[in-house]
Amino acid sequence: MTDDINLEYVDLYKEFEDEKLRMVLSTLHHLLTESYITMNQLLPSEEYTRHFWAEDSRKLINIINIINKLKGKLLNSELSFKLDDYKWGE
To answer: What is the pLDDT of residues 6-45, one digit of tens each?
Structure first.
């Protein structure tokens, strides 16, 4: 299971004292980034006619569900966190 851990983004989560939580958040961040890269590669364009596939969509939904479950489990604890809202165009 430790092969799945990715620490590429761990410095973004240094405000959290808990090392395991930083590792989990960094790994989830990495998985989201990989999914977005895949999604963008599969968008149809003049050069490419491929579309975002169902399996890739299921992977992204799974990552989002894991993040939401983690957030809910840690709610009202010292490890709680909030997700920043992203508003397009602001």
So the answer is: 999 999 999 999 999 999 999 999 999 998 888 777 666 6
Task: Give burial (CB, 10 Å; 0-12/13-18/19+) of 9.
Answer: middle
Tell me, what amino acid is at 14?
K
| Res 49: pLDDT | 63
Q: Is 89 left (phi over 0), alpha (psi -120 to 50) or beta?
A: left
Q: Which amino acid is at 65?
A: N
As a whole number of angstroms, the distance between CA 83 and CA 90 comes to 17
